[in-house]
Design goal:
Length: about 140
C-alpha cells in the first residue's frame, strides 16, 4: 500500500524561533504555529478552531528562520508529520511535529511602518516611491 506524508499549513508564529546546533554543526530551529479555521454553525453563528502545532526546521533554513522570523509573523510551512515517542517515569509519551522542508515568509510585523532607506532622502511631497526607491510615474 502506498504511503504519503505531506502537510501544508499557513499560520502565525506563536513564539520567536529557537535555534540550536547539533554536535556536527547543523542548525535546528523550532517554533510554534497557530492556524485558525472559522466556519458557520448550523444555527448561523460563527465558530473558530485553532490548531497549535510545533515546527522543526533544519540547515540554512533554520538559520534564516531565526534571523528573520518573530512571534506573530505569517508563514507557509510545507513538510511532513513526525511523531516522537519516549518514556518518562514509566509513562509512555508522544508528540507530533511538522518537519518543515520549506518555510515561506509571508509578512513582517513592521510591514505597515516602512521608513525610507537611510541612504535615500525622503520622497518629495506629493510623489510616490515604490519599495525599490524608483519613482512611480503618477
Amino acid at each position: 500500500m502506498p504511503n504519503y506524508n505531506r502537510v501544508i499549513l499557513v499560520g502565525h508564529l506563536t513564539r520567536d524561533p529557537e535555534c540550536k546546533y547539533t554536535p556536527k554543526g547543523t542548525a535546528v530551529s523550532n517554533f510554534g504555529l497557530a492556524v485558525n479555521h472559522k466556519y458557520k454553525t448550523d444555527s448561523g453563528g460563527v465558530k473558530e478552531e485553532v490548531y497549535w502545532g510545533e515546527v522543526e526546521v533544519w540547515g540554512s533554513q533554520a538559520e534564516a528562520c531565526k534571523e528573520y522570523l518573530a512571534k506573530g509573523r505569517a508563514v507557509l510551512v510545507e513538510g511532513r508529520l513526525k511523531t516522537e515517542q519516549w518514556e518518562s517515569g514509566g509513562e509512555k509519551k508522544s508528540r507530533t511535529r511538522i518537519r518543515a522542508d520549506r518555510v515561506q515568509f509571508l509578512s513582517s510585523p513592521d510591514s505597515q511602518k516602512r521608513e525610507p532607506r537611510r541612504e535615500e532622502a525622503p520622497p518629495e511631497e506629493g510623489r510616490a516611491v515604490d519599495e525599490s526607491g524608483d519613482d512611480i510615474p503618477f
